[in-house]
Amino acid sequence: MTNPVLTIVVPCYNEEEVLPETVFQLSGVLDSLIEEQLISSSSTMLLVDDGSKDATWPLIEQFHSVNPFVTGLKLARNAGHQRALLAGLMKARSYADCVVSIDADLQDDVDAIREFVVRYREGYDIVYGIRQSRSTDTWFKRATAQGFYKLMTRMGVNIHYNHADFRLMSKRTLDELDKFQEVNLFLRGMVPLLGFRSTKVYYDRKERFAGESKYPLKKMLAFAFDGITSFSVTPIRFVTAMGFVLSALSIVAGIYAIIGKLLGSTVTGWTSLVLSVWLIGGVQLLALGLIGEYVGKIYKEVKRRPLYIIEKEAISDSTQLAQSH
Ligand code: UDP
Ligand code: MG
Questions:
Q1: Nearest ligand to the C-alpha atom of residue 15
Q2: For the whole prediction, is pTM greater than 0.90?
Q3: What is the pLDDT of residues 277-316, one digit of tens each?
Q4: Is the ipTM above a cut-off of 0.90?
Q5: I need a labelling partner for 247 at 20 to 30 A (CA). Which of 65, 86, 128, 155 fits?
Q6: Ligand 1: which of 15, 103, 207 to mutate, judged by most atoms within 8 Å of the beta carbon?
Q7: Which ligand is nearest to the CA of 11?
Q8: How many whole angstroms separate alpha carbon 189 and alpha carbon 184?
Q9: Burial 150-188 (b: 16+ CB within 10 A, else e)
Q10: Is pLDDT larger for residue 209 or for residue 150?
């Protein structure tokens, strides 16, 4: 087997604090993999600046000028983690044989990349990095993440437990991923849909090397909600079922009321009446909200807006013309 060209894609949003260490560690990984003849010497890392407000892009340009492993992509504005990642993957597939995606904050074990490459060379198209321990995350992050995976699985979405976006994908799987035209990106749900031969590699998740999580609770909830409503119709089915049960109950109640009326007993006050009106009003609002969520999704998909806009590139021609050898 010729040595494959590897590109490590790293989405970066306001990561000036960690970036030097990330570049250092990833360069070390690339260096030793080349040394071991596991990957081609034209392998690189692609740092995608997701519209950072700090010095992330100038740093990337600076690294690019001194470190041949470093290439960069600058998005015109903040597109979000998933889209920034996709931008990097789609760029890299034009010259790489396989692509590893990893977060900038060094929470994922860079040493696992070697194992990814070994699996790829054994013939696997997709290698999922699976977190073995979450001991360094706060209990809150752990609990919410766990609840999220459980909920997703229960709603019939096929995602790998404890797998984030740390994975290797071969060029041909990325070519297939490119055919997915969805705007509501949830890559960890989409990749398993591709099929192909895949395997898992286990690693320990570490603490963020520096800087703060760019996923505050609000973003995390939005991400989870997106993941569920983009992949599952269970919530809407639940609403339908609830509507069905309520309708059945109201028919029974109606019959009861009519019989009561015929027998001469009158309606005893309006409290119960008002309460039931409220209840039904509430249920209807809930149902409408959920339906609105799906309609909103359709609206977004139909618009076909570009997912990201690339402003600048820092990728040398030799990288773009990379050949496996
Ligand atoms: N990120 C990004 N755009 C965003 C938010 C985050 O590219 O709008 C990147 C960020 O720089 C990091 C990765 O996505 O490399 C994961 O973010 P973070 O580590 O903050 O999330 P957490 O690990 O806390 O879930
Ligand atoms: Mg992180």
A1: 1
A2: no
A3: 767 777 787 787 778 778 877 877 776 777 888 889 888 8
A4: yes
A5: 155
A6: 103
A7: 1
A8: 11
A9: eebeebebebbebbbbbbbbbbebbebbeeeeebebbbb
A10: 150
